[in-house]
Amino acid sequence: MNTPKDTPILSMRAGTYRERPAHGTLSRLFCRVWSHRLPQEFEGQIAVVPDGCCDLIWAGGQLMVIGPDRTAAFPALAPGESILGLRFRPGTALHWLDVPLRELVGQAVPLRELRDDVRAMEDRLAEANCPIVRRRLFDAWAAGEASLAAEPQNAMGMLFDGLGSGVLHGSLATQALGERTLRRQSHDHFGYGPKTLERILRLQRFLRMVRQPASGNLAILALEAGYADQAHMTRDVKELTTFTPWEIRRQICS
Predict the structure, then answer these.
(1) What is the pLDDT of residue 43?
(2) Rounded CA gap, 180 and 2, in Å?
């Protein structure tokens, strides 16, 4: 991929990124298990586009909570950096962290600042000198936490899934929960209101579609993703990511 050095690289295109569904007890609290390793010779800046989610990661020798983003984040990562991640299921992070996600928007917070019972686990992870062993330790500890977690907020999970698939609009959700309740719960569970969440999940639909080998031209993709037209998509994607749809497709498809 021939990307100018001063142009950020989409995180999924920088180094080695792997992701899979969470299974078993782990899936009670988390939906995805992922890892990301940058090459030793990496130079430049990566862009992490918003996805409406909150993550628990191991990076830089500590456990961190990555709050939801409104727009693309540009984390400072060292060459060769290796990150282990778990993505919270929609509606689960609030009760486990005991912190409304509106307080974590755009932030990377050491988990020890939110919970006082994680230092022993951090020490064990730091002592593991094998990536496979560290991954197993991380997942096993998280599975133990998941086994004790409260049942997820089904209403919030349904809202997320409905907006993500494009079959549910904010107006319908408002009718079901009431405008004030929906807005408050959305801010608590996702960091922002349903309108912002809808925009971000529409962006994620576009990203999924553009990864398909037979994806059509941008005007068709705009309509399939749920935008009014290509101009609407270009404006919205640019505001959320700093990239144009064409730049995103060039990076993903090259």
Answers:
(1) 85
(2) 48
Report the chain's terminal Cα–Cα distance, integer Å.
6
Residues 6+ apart with CB under 8 A from 74: 8, 45, 46, 47, 48
217-239 pLDDT, tens digit each? 899 999 999 999 999 999 999 99
Tell me the β-bridge partners of 16.
37
pLDDT tens, 137-169?
999 999 999 998 877 667 788 888 888 887 665
Q: How far is CA 101 from CA 18, 198, 222, 233, 244, in A?
A: 26, 17, 30, 27, 28
pTM of the model: 0.90
CB contact at 8 A, 54 and 101: yes
CA separation for the pair 13, 252 (Å, rounded)? 7
Minimal CA–CA distance to 53: which of 99, 109, 94, 8? 94
Which two tokens mark 20? 């899979």
